[in-house]
Structures are given as C-alpha cells and as structure tokens.
C-alpha cells in the first residue's frame, strides 16, 4: 500500500475523485476545487488551530441562516464570488441592461400592483420618489407585459425583513409594463446602508478592516416571455459608496440620476405631493 505524504496526497485524492465521478461537469468541478483547496492549504501551511477555526466559522455561517437570513449568500457577496459568477454568466454585451447581485433580501411573492402604485407601506422620508421607465428589446422596441419585481430599503436604511417594526412587504412590489413597455411606481429614494454585520460576515469585515456599506440602490428582477430574466439594481448617482461597495456590485451603466421635480401634472397623475424625486431609468432585455 501507498503511504500518504504532503507530496503525493493531492495526486491520490484527485485520482480517486477523477476516476469515480460519473457526471463529467461534476467531475470537473470537484477535481478543480480539490486541486485549489489542497494548493491553498499547502501554500499557507495551515495550522490545526486555523483549520478548526475555519470549520467553526463555516458552522457559524450555516447556523446564522434561516428563511429570512442567508449568511452564505452574504459571504459569497463580500468575497466577490457572487459578482464573479455574475460576470461569467452575464458578460457585458453592449446591449441590454447589465446585471448585478441578487443579494440576500429578495422575497418571492411580493404584492402585485397596478402601474404607478406606491410600494410604501410605512413612510420614513419626507418626500416620495417617482421611478419610471421603459423596458425594451435590443432594437429599442417596447416589451409589453414584462414583469418587474422591485425591492429596496426604506429610507431608514433597512429592508422589511430586517426590521420588526415595519409592515410586511414594505418597499416591495411587482409591476407589469403597459402596451408601450412603460413601468412606473412610487417609492422613497433609497439610502446607502450597512449589510448585516452581526454574524460571521461582520467578523470577516472587521478582521480585514473593510467597511460594510452599500451605495443606495433599488433592486429589480425583470422577466418577459422570450427574454433572458434580468437581475439588477439602479444605484443613486452621487452616493459616497459607489466606489467602495462592500459587495463589489456597482456598474457605472446602472447609476440612475434622480432629479428634484415640481411637475404638477406628474404629481396629479401619480397622486403624490410636490416636490418629489424623479428617476427615469429604461431597461433592456436580451432575447433568450
Ligand atoms: C443587497 O443589496 O440587498 C445586498 C446585496 C449583497 C449583500 C448584502 C445586501
Ligand atoms: Fe439591496
């Protein structure tokens, strides 16, 4: 029999997994993962204490997860892995709106609203914001019937699922584009906010002297028959964290420009007081 040594163990492990894993893609993934994992352990000459600390860290990450909190997504986000997966799967094509991270605060089953309705159930800001735009195909033709699932923090910097004092589905809603591909909703202008730091991810950020802030943004998942679904954000221009997003998810094409408006016609149409913030942001979908 062979003795296992630092010099031959990786090769033996790779041979074992490589020769027995039937599914070709899984074989590729598991053997590459093992190769890099072994190389990492050898590179830093991991001590037993460090290895056990890593095990306890991953255990705590799992224990932090429930139906409202996904610490593993958060970990993937702050490590830049979510954005790497996004970049590989949605390369920049010059056409269609760029994608970015989903984040851990998406909740399916948000209320469906008429175009132009408000997603505010509890208002924190003095002034509301009107967000509107058009969803189009790569030739600029409107896409009617596109579904926009939107969610964001309230103007106190929290998502509804993080804040027990907020009504369920505050700042969440599903909208459908009209015949001209138009969507519109009333909201509050989002604020920059801190990702949760009360768990293992916070420990990592503190240990690496990184801040936990994300620039203000509104999340969108847009889908329509015959088109690739799009998961994206619209960031607020001028936000101080655009250049240092804790999860590396900003893209300059996704920065929206809010203006201060006193347009009485728009205010009457959407039943909102003046002045209001106004964001116009068009979205492009790619055929599937
Ligand atoms: C968010 O945008 O909600 C988010 C994304 C990644 C990590 C934490 C929060
Ligand atoms: Fe967010």
* Gyration radius from CA atoms, angstroms: 23 Å
Helix and strand composition category: alpha/beta
Structure summary, number of beta strands: 12
Q: What is the helix/strand order?
A: HHHHHEEEEEHEEEEEHEE
Helix content: 25-40%
Q: Give the rounded overall mean pLDDT.
A: 95
Which percent range describes the beta-strand content?
Answer: 15-25%
Shape: elongated
Helices, by number, come to 7
Uncertain segments are none
The largest pleated sheet is described as: 5 strands, mixed
Bound molecules: benzoic acid, fe (iii) ion
End-to-end separation:
54 Å
Main features:
19% strand, 12 strands, alpha/beta, 7 helices, binds fe (iii) ion, 288 residues, 5-stranded mixed beta sheet, elongated, binds benzoic acid
Brief account:
The chain has 288 residues and is of the alpha/beta class.
Task: Please give a structural write-up.
The chain has 288 residues and is of the alpha/beta class. The chain has helices at 9-20, 24-44, 48-63, 71-78, 81-89, 200-207, 264-270; strands at residues 129-136, 147-151, 172-176, 182-187, 193-194, 213-214, 217-223, 230-236, 255-256, 258-261, 276-280, 283-284. The chain is built from 7 helices and 12 strands. Strands 1, 4, 10, 11 and 12 form a 5-stranded mixed beta sheet that branches. The protein has a 5-stranded mixed beta sheet with strand order 3-2-7-8-9, with no helix packed on it. Strand 7 (217-223) and strand 8 form a beta hairpin. Helix 1 (9-20) runs antiparallel to helix 2 (24-44). 28% of the residues are buried. Bound molecules: benzoic acid and fe (iii) ion (FE). The site of benzoic acid (BEZ) has 9 residues, from helix 4. Fe (iii) ion (FE) binds at residues 103, 105, 217, 219.
